Amino acid sequence: MSAAQLTADAPQAYWYDATLGGTQGESVAVPTYQVTVHGASLEDKWTDVVKAGTQQVLTSWSDVHEALNRDVCDAARKTVSGTNASVRCGSSRAFKVTRKEGGAASAVTDVNNVYNFFGDAQSFYQKSVGVDLTSLIGANYSDGTGKALRGTVRVCVQGEACPFLNAFWDGEQMAFGEGVTTDDVTGHELTHGVTQHTSGLEGGQADSINEGLSDVFGKFIALSANDPNSQGVNRWNLGAGTSLGVIRNMKDPRSSKKAQPDRVNGPGWDTNNPDVHINDGVVNKTDYLITDGDTFNGQTVRGLGVDKSVQIWWGVENLLTPTATFKDVGVALNSSCTALARSGAAGVTADDCAQVAKAVKATQLDQTPR
Fold this sequence. Notes:
Elements: E1 7-8, E2 12-16, E3 30-38, E4 45-51, E5 57-62, E6 70-74, E7 79-80, H1 84-87, E8 97-100, H2 109-129, H3 133-137, E9 149-153, E10 156-157, E11 167-169, E12 174-176, H4 183-197, H5 205-224, E13 237-238, E14 248-249, H6 280-292, E15 293-296, E16 299-302, H7 306-319, H8 326-343, H9 350-362
Helix pairs in contact: 2-4, 2-5, 4-5, 5-6, 5-7, 6-7, 6-9, 7-8, 8-9
């Protein structure tokens, strides 16, 4: 916004010590003025701390407290070890915040993309299942910005090619290689954080189910945001628009970049597959069938649409236990749908649950993995 749209309250004298907000260095209080600035909108209100006798703004913060809080840092292709400490996004940590909540757009495309995609994910979880994503998985690094969804972009990882062609959730925040920032990839990684704080899936078959749920909700986030990379032929493709290209095809897992099974105990299935991203094709195929419908493996499924599917899969996320198996996913899908139908939630009907049961049978989630 232009300077003509801004107004400022009378400055208030204020002694400022940056170390009290988490910044490393010598603890020294300097004379400053706090100035509250107002913009054209009611949401445009923040406080600047200006060093006395200068025009230097030492820090600023929003005075409008929203649930959504985003911090995005730019590694600018710096090589990191891949550990939590090496990628942390926060002024007293590995990288300073490039764009924070309400801040101006960055000159770095990946920074702006992740900032926007964090917003899409927060909006999806809040509106669809009533979860405040920032509160659930945000991190507070004592840098003055509070608990925030945090991500560091354009990282290069030690021992890997640079640019780093991947993205990951490290248990606290996101890290992205260059050009791998899309709505579905960002949503996928953030959903690992959601799973960490809900079903806690970990180890064995649960690791692959974890990947599957991240694909499912990553795609739901992209579809709900009308992401152009999830339109037309890319509706069920993951990674379209990234520097990686399409990674997985949820509609036809067998045609994915790395072929995946589309049913338990079917072609390509390996119960003990060390690559956790392979068997998740079964979860993906099931999601496609429940959402859009199709004829597959002797079953004709009527699709329920995105809204109902989201509610059913959210039930699954909350029904599974940390050591769940693929057969448990089938049980949870049927149980989640039945519970919704009995309560009349989301408009789910008994016939909808019959469709879910057929999808479970089609992808053989009713079988014990061999």
